[in-house]
Design a protein that fits this description.
The structure holds 2 protein chains of 2 kinds. In chain A, 37% of the residues lie in helices and 19% in strands. Chain A is of the alpha/beta class. Chain A has a single domain, classed as Glutaredoxin (3-Layer(aba) Sandwich), CATH 3.40.30. Classes of the chains: A alpha/beta, B mainly alpha.
Chain lengths: 175, 168
């Protein structure tokens, strides 16, 4: 019957473990329903040549990253130097989705800070952003050759995220 | 200065101020104006928006939030309802993009069984424990004294003697 004395202690330990695990979860990280699903299709005017369109279908056959950015977005500035550096490496294609931005300030921003994007497309009304479930800029998607979303990163891409998550994934998708 | 001229001057100043206020009026914040002319549709939009979570400010619903994205999403809800889609279709549209997280009232499915059944489970467990402890208590009380002793104790309690101090 001595065992009964330990019941409250065990209950406390279980509760503490559960709450402790809860502390480690990030409530801002909304699980994306897109992983493993075809990337939503879009066809949008290009930032540099508004008369030309880029469609998601045009990217079929290569592994690419879709980076959602805006000139008004402060966090985009922190990841930008890394993106510029990555764009100089071989085999990395970043398409920019210029989200709810003024194209003039966007162009000026790229001129000042460097342009890491193979192409940037303009989503002025944010409709494509909604289709991709964007709720905080910057966000980065990794899309494979078949056009399936493999990964989504919310917030600025840091060197750590790049080396631990994105780079290995892109390499294995290209391999 | 003669008093008539002073009064005229005052009234001119006052009317200038009034005219100025009229110019300012249209710039006052303008809130709560229904965007759809159709009040029935707007009521549907609002009740649906109250069920959907704003992704930017996660403890607010789309209806409460003034975040840019929340306004965009609310416009989406309005547009789709106007196009004749059902409430369920609009909720599906949102969950397709933002996951189950957008729903304040989670769907009933295998992963959410514990969430929905949890309170009932806790009630049953608590009720069971209470019932058991009450029964044990009852049994202990009954076993403590034989029936004859119980009857005597009862009689003593009822008699006046029990109220007198011993030897009194």
């Amino acid at each position: 019957m001595k065992l009964r004395l330990y019941v409250p202690l065990a209950a406390f330990a279980a509760l503490a473990l559960m709450l402790g695990a809860g502390l480690k979860l990030d409530p801002r990280e909304v699980p994306s329903p897109f992983i493993g699903k075809p990337a939503p299709a879009f066809s949008l005017p290009q930032l540099h040549q508004p008369e030309r369109q880029l469609a998601s279908a045009d990217m079929k056959g290569q592994v690419w990253m879709l980076n959602v950015w805006a000139s008004w977005c402060v966090a985009c500035r922190t990841e930008h130097p890394l993106l510029v550096e990555l764009s100089r490496q071989d085999g990395i294609t970043i398409v920019g989705l210029n989200y709810k931005d003024d194209p003039r300030s966007a162009l000026e921003w790229l001129q000042r800070l460097g342009d890491p994007y193979a192409t940037s497309v303009v989503d002025r009304a944010g409709r494509v952003g909604i289709d991709y479930g964007v709720y905080g800029v910057p966000e980065t998607f990794v899309i494979d050759r078949a056009g399936v979303v493999r990964f989504k990163h919310i917030g600025p891409v840091t060197p750590e995220v790049w080396t631990t998550r994105l780079q290995p994934l892109i390499r294995s998708l290209q391999g | 200065m003669n008093p008539v001229r002073a009064a005229v001057r005052r009234s001119i100043r006052l009317s200038t101020l009034c005219a100025g206020l009229l110019l300012v009026a249209p710039a006052w914040p303008d809130e709560g104006r229904p965007v759809a002319a159709d009040p029935v549709l707007e009521a549907r939009v609002n009740s649906l928006a109250a069920e959907l979570r704003c992704l930017v400010c996660q403890n607010q619903s789309l209806a409460d939030s003034h975040a840019d994205l929340a306004i965009d999403l609310k416009n989406q809800v309005r547009e789709q309802l106007r196009a004749g889609r059902s409430d369920a279709e609009v909720v599906d549209y949102m969950t397709d993009r933002y996951g189950d997280f957008v729903r304040y009232r989670p769907a009933l499915k295998p992963q959410t069984l514990l969430l929905w059944g949890g309170p009932l489970l806790l009630l049953l467990t608590g009720g069971g424990l209470l019932w058991r402890s009450l029964r044990t208590h009852e049994r202990q009380r009954a076993a403590a004294l034989p029936e004859a002793a119980m009857a005597r104790a009862d009689a003593l309690l009822r008699s006046d003697d029990a109220l007198r101090p011993p030897g009194g």
